[in-house]
Every structure is written in C-alpha cells, then in structure tokens.
Amino acid sequence: MDCRDLRRRRARARFASRCSRVVRRHLGRHRSADRGGTVKTVVFASGKGGTGKTTLTALAAAILAKNHRLVLADCDVEASNLPIALSVTTTASESFSGGAGAFIDPIACRGCGVCLRACRFEALVRPEWDDESPAYRVNPWLCEGCGACVSRCSYHAISMQKKSAGEVFSGTSAVGPVSFGQLGPGEDLSGKLVTEVRSRAKAMAEESDAELLLIDGPPGVGCPVIASITNTDLLVAVTEPTLSGESDLLRLVMLARRLGVDVAVVLNKADLSARGAERIRRRVASEGLDLLGEIPFDPTLASVLERLASGARIETLLAEAAPGLAAAQGALTMVVDRLA
Asked: Whole-angstrom Cα distance, residue 337 to residue 340?
C-alpha cells in the first residue's frame, strides 16, 4: 500500500466517522422510542447493490404480515424499488428542503458582472445579447450555495433561498403503510432524506399500533446507510457468494458494530458458487455472526413478487413450495425468533 492509498483510506474513515456522529446526534432523541418501545425495527441492507435485499424485504412483508402488524420504509431514496415490488398506492407527499441556492432578482440586477467573477463554480449565466433584461441567471445544477455572489453584489439583487432536494411519500399496500422518498437529481442530502423517511414511518407505526417496522436500506456503507441502520433492533445483512459480496459484508458489519447494532446474515443465491458460499460461511463464523439462512437462486421469485402485488395470497404461493420462497420463509422465521 502506497502513501496515497493510505491517505485515501484515512480520509474515508474520517468521513464515515463524521457521518456517524451527525446521524447519531440527529436520531439520538428518538433512541428510547425506536429501541425501547413496542415497535421492533429490522433493516435489510447490503454492502453492495444487487444482492436481493429489496426482494427479501418484500417477501418478509408478505410473510410476516400474516401474524404481525407492519409498517415499511424504503430508505434507498436514490432508487426506491420497494413501492414497485409491493404495488404501493401513494396517499401523500411532502417536499424535502435541501440546502440554499442563489436567486437573482431580475429587476434589481444591473448586469454589472461582479457575481460572475466571484463564482468559482461557473453557476452564473450571462444574459444573451437579445435578452430584454440585463439580469444574470443562476444555473441551479452548478450552484453550490456558497453565497460568495451575495456578498459581492452591491445592488442587493442576489439572495439565498431554500430549494427542494426531493420528496417524502406516504402510501398504502396490502401488507401495511409504506414510507419512501425520492432524492432529486444532483442532490447530496440523502442521509437527511433517509432520516425524514424513517421519521414518517415511525409516525405511521405509532398511528397504526404496528409491531414491526421493516426497512429496505440502501446499498453501501455511506451516510444514507448510517441513517438507515442507526438505532435499529436488527440488521439483516444480505450477501452473495462472491469476493465482492464477502468484502462488502465485512464493511457493513464493521459499520453496524460501530453503531452498536445487532447483525445477522442471510446468504442469497447460495448455490451459484459452492466455493464462494463456503467462504461466506467461514467468514460469518469467524466474525461470530449468525447465518439465518441460505436462499438458492430462484428465477421464480420475481414472478412471486408480481403475483403478490396482483393480490395473490402468500399461503397459496408457499403451498407451491418454490425453493427460493421456502428458504426465505425459513430465514425470516429466524429473524422473528431473533427479535423475541
């Protein structure tokens, strides 16, 4: 490892530590309600995308809804797929405010160009030669909200205004209320939006007297993941029998331990690589974790979700004894036992 790699690793570690402190401070006031109340919170997450965590979350909702009152939250705010899998009907939405951006009053602006020279992000746009107004304009995709242009404008034509960074949605499904979000393109406040999604789901759980809150977490180990798993009762780490699956599983486990969250593992697509599956089993054992179950690769699971969304009963599908669904049911039974 050279010096540059070492510096990059240290920078990533410092960044993750800062994110962890910020999220824990933001959610700390809810700790007693989230962990000590009657609602148990389970988050399904993975260190990488494509492991099947959304599929497992949707199956968990369908299977556990038979005997438990559920609320669900999709905290993958950059690509919410759980509402699609559960055929969610949106009932309410609320704008999520992000950072402030520059706004130029076209009447007050004299077109002097001082703001253009002050901006280091090339976010100010000159007026065209045939424009009726001499006012400059702001490109919202390039503006970083630094405010340098505001202090330089002697005509007080520029102000900082809050801008929408996404939306928080509420919806209903056959298995219970669902909260999810959609981050706007180019926005970087996914961790805060995840916190809003969780707050909405928590309010739904209190209104419906729910017993379980199931969270479909985002992939990776960044700020949105930290916001998703902080103050939860159990993290179900969904992995696959590959080298990248093992590596990303370890990163997720390290993060969960740093946040004091209990972890258990589900190995998905376990039969695609015998050697890879054995590596995951050994790694799980060496880390002192529980392997809740192994789910074989089953192409019929996609049609299972489609049929569930169309109104099919889970009992009917379980009676068909599809190998993937049967294995998922066994793993999810272990999840409930773990929470007891």
From this structure: 5
